[in-house]
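Question (not urgent): is this output format expected?
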Amino acid sequence: MARIRTVKPEFWEDEAIGLISFGARLLFLACFNFADDEGLMRWTPDYLKASVFMYDKEVTTEQVETFMGELASAGLVIPYKGGKSQQRLGWILNFLKHQRINRPQPSKLPPPGLQQQAIRQAYRHRDHDICHLCHKLIEDLPTPLNYGEDDSLVLSLDHILVQSRGGSDYPSNIKSAHLACNKGKGTRDSESFTPKSVDDARLVVNTSVNHSVNKGMNDSSPEGKGREVEGKGMEGEVKAPPENFHPLQHAARLAEMIGLPQTTTNMRTVSEAIRSEAQFTGRTMEAICETLAAKIRDDRDEGIPIDKFYFEDAKWRNGNGKQSSAAQARPGIIKQNILDGITADARRRAQSDSAQREGGTGRRVSTRN
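Got this back:
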């Protein structure tokens, strides 16, 4: 059954969308309508031909299958087989990121299998290689590892609501995590376990070597309450303080603030710009994001295009030694140094504060006289 969906303006600026053919682009838009509230749908050329191109006699089933291949190659739709009959299904990777479902209905289709390597990597790509528990980068390690190697940083798929409490394998309940963080969380919900780092999660796992993870956490102190108290202390804090975010997390936040499409290329470029800016100025990444957002809005009002080249120029101008040919090729107006803007803003604020203090002093003196 087709559903009412929305299309964001960023859709038309997405580089991945721009690289596929017109027919594949139209099919992708139609997928939003025919997918359920988990982003799952039937993925056969006959079904899509009859549903989307019913009036287009010149579009053949073979062409539709070509369009489907383009969407799969671009990573926009992940094909998989599910159910006893191994039905051909498709999963729109970033469906829940772009669609706001007011009253989500349970899916009637089987979810993607979490043991399939392609599905696991798709979740990792969707989550920008970030562990949702400690907010650190998930290392690109080969699996399986050799015997004796540390597997703490290996990709693991975490159930937000654990399966023992009714959690499902559907995409809305799955997030990428480090294996150590996932083990440390145990049977608790994700909101009740926020490790500062992988080492913190590994410490939780190692509280009892000869017991299971959950029992080890319960028995790590008298009456089994020590870990519970520590867990409550974690819950009382703000989850993942911004200064502890990975640069990719800051890049995602900045992209949302300025309306930049969150493609993989954009996120990598923006995160590098934020990282180099923080290293060069000594300011926190959170402060850099806020300042950049204000500077970008001003530059956009002046007609400066805000894209990945804008951030490449900023990265080069901030002196990290990685001069790019893209920066040299851009017009001079785009090569404005973000750091110069930050410095100028700080200078203006300092002059304004000084003027206000002098004015205030003068008024106080005249009042005494």
